[in-house]
Design goal:
The structure is a homodimer.
Chain A lengths: L15 H9 L14 E10 L3 H10 L6 E4 L23 E5 L2 E6 L10 E7 L2 H9 L5 H4 L6 E7 L9 E10 L3 H9 L10 E2 L25 E7 L2 H9 L5 E4 L5 E6 L11
């Protein structure tokens, strides 16, 4: 049997269901940036039920880096509030598996690993507010230049819960000084996608020593008249999960998000009951 | 020893700490509407830890009636993200205790009932958006007339989680037709306080047969040119908790809310770490 492969360009005008179907049958394994425009994309954390209460408490206490947009029943691979036909074991194009806090493997299907006690927590992601910035003619440098957003460990303490604690990871986007208020106002409309910036200006004020040396992602140029603006980053909960050294924890791979049926500008991230 | 009593009027210009202190020492047992203006007031649900994960899942799936603004550690009577010095066993002026889903008693201190496995979940309340409507010259009839807001069981199904399920309870406020869009826009800014209305107009469309016969609270007049507007109500989670017949569940008494240190218009309901 030859497996038909689907190109990124084939999926550009596809619905969330169509993109997830291509991923589920294994014909698309690429990143999801720019796909299913206008729909919510999600960071993923899949963990054993006995850690789920503390993890939800942690997310509630740190809503800017960890905006919860969906939580599964224990052992249930569906996420009916995010999509009509989501199977979280197969509908993400790349997963990362961690055991005892150590990276174990990157795979494109976790059906074999699924157990009755796993809980999926879906978290909002920055694609949502970046799309809104672009629609309002605010430049987003890493998108313009085809790079990954630069991410930095800050010195901002997170509110702990159970085994979960640490420092906030932030993203940086250079914004023209005259557009900072507008960028703040626009991103604040998306509390499910990290909300308003957590800081503006001097990187040292939040413990970043060198903006040209991001801890993850790519450095980007800050042009004359631009100011670095920092947002809470979805890598935060991933780091915190790893540091907690859970026996098993599964996340999406960076850029390979879960695409939901929910509109990214919906008032809540919950699909109504059918 | 004579216990000094504090009058409502004595507390009108008090801080949240001062109001909670008066409640804690037993000198004030009244309602909290209008106290600590500008600060978040909260509905309360205190329940055994083994039900907390499902209850948080239920709240996540029903964010408009159940906006979570704080969750305690198990057995911890403090809520540090909501206030510096909250003791949830004594800082609410009246509590209702339910056993196996049946009302057991109304008391003003739950220290004797506290156990190591209780979890407090604090939920946003409608005071927040009502204050915002009033500030914008939108009339709120039940406040004008010194009554309780009328509340109705709707036919809107809630998204279930574990033992928690049921129908949404809604409040009704008559709004002048010309101000409905503004009322919607203002309340939508407060997702932690039930957000935008869930319906406008015909009560039958959401299963309400007679607006003059509320299930809880008081009927209010709908004047010429006004339209009934419905918001999700914090009585919803209380009903759902009772229907789940937990061995023990403690709530605030209606109108006797927890007053937090958090500003009601803050971007998140989390106080920064000190």
């Amino acid at each position: 049997m030859t497996l038909q492969t689907t190109a990124y360009s084939d999926l550009l005008n596809s619905t969330p269901e169509q993109v997830r179907a291509a991923i589920r049958r294994g014909s698309y394994t690429g990143h999801t940036a720019g796909l299913a425009t206008g729909k919510l994309q999600c960071n993923l954390a899949i963990l054993p039920e006995r850690y789920a209460l503390d993890f939800l408490r942690f997310c509630q206490r740190n809503p800017k880096p960890c905006p919860v947009v969906g939580v599964s029943d224990s052992g249930d691979a569906n996420l009916p509030t995010l999509g009509r036909d989501i199977d979280i074991r197969s509908d993400v194009s790349k997963y990362r598996v961690f055991r005892d806090g150590v990276f174990a493997e990157e795979i494109d299907d976790i059906t074999e690993l699924w157990t009755h006690d796993l809980v999926t927590v879906a978290l909002g992601c920055s694609f949502t507010f970046e799309n809104a910035l672009l629609r309002n003619d605010i430049p987003v440098r890493h998108i313009e230049t085809g790079r990954n957003v630069p991410m930095f460990r800050s010195n901002i303490d997170l509110m702990p819960a159970g085994p979960f604690a640490g420092k906030m990871v932030v993203t940086m986007r250079p914004i023209p000084e005259s557009q900072i208020d507008q960028a703040r106002e626009i991103s604040a409309r998306y509390p499910h996608a990290h909300g308003a910036p957590i800081g503006v200006g001097d990187p040292a004020s939040i413990g970043i020593s060198d903006l040209s040396q991001p801890d993850w992602g790519d450095a980007v140029e800050i042009k004359a008249g631009e100011v670095p603006v920092y947002w809470a980053c979805g890598v935060t909960p991933q780091n915190v999960l790893l540091d907690a050294k859970l026996p098993l924890c599964i996340t999406h791979s960076p850029g390979h998000m879960l695409i939901a049926d929910v509109a990214e500008d919906a008032e809540t991230t919950i699909l109504p009951l059918q």
